[in-house]
Fold this sequence. Notes:
Oligomer: single chain
Number of strands: 0
Radius of gyration: 18 Å
Structural class: mainly alpha
Protein name: DUF3795 domain-containing protein
Organism: Iocasia fonsfrigidae
Largest sheet: none
Distance between the termini: 50 Å
Shape: globular
Amino acid sequence: MGVGGPSHNMVFKIPLRSMQISSPSQVWLRFRNFLNTWYVMRHARKRGKQMKRLDTYCGLYCGSCEIFLVNQRDLVEETAKKWKTNSEDLYCNGCKKDTNSVFCKDCQIKLCSESKELDYCFQCEDFPCADLIKFKNDENPHHSIVLHNLNNIKKIGTKKWLKEQEKRWSCPECGEKYSWYDEKCSNCNRYVKSCIDDEKEIKLKYLWSE
């Protein structure tokens, strides 16, 4: 790697030897995702911040997760007391990092993707698998967007998708970050679009497409 590239001690998983590739387009897709990941990591290190990973294997955006925002706002201890749980269970740096909350560390989709050395579910030959479909259609409205997000990441790349998601989950009035189920901004009290609104839009599009 030339000047300005990743340092020798930075680890990236590019399973070119072990993965089954059926077309040159898949090779290019994986290489583009690697470049996007490297870009995000390099610029986060330049800013002197601990690297967080806001993209996930399944297509969720960690930046709009309530647990992740609690960590960003240094409210873990306070939240643990409110929820009557162990604070250690709430520490999280994002799905693709080593520190995960108790709600995510044993996620089967995460473990499956890691075992196959994939960055995203759409890189798997079984995509979309039964587990992902079940996850999308469960009782949690914020899961309904995962296939849409994965297809969007595949189309525009990680870097652009992360920028779009950051804007999507920021208050249009004051820029405050908010979580999936928030309906009002905690800073300026303005109405914000929640994941429940997203789910309604997805169902409406499905009805119109029938």
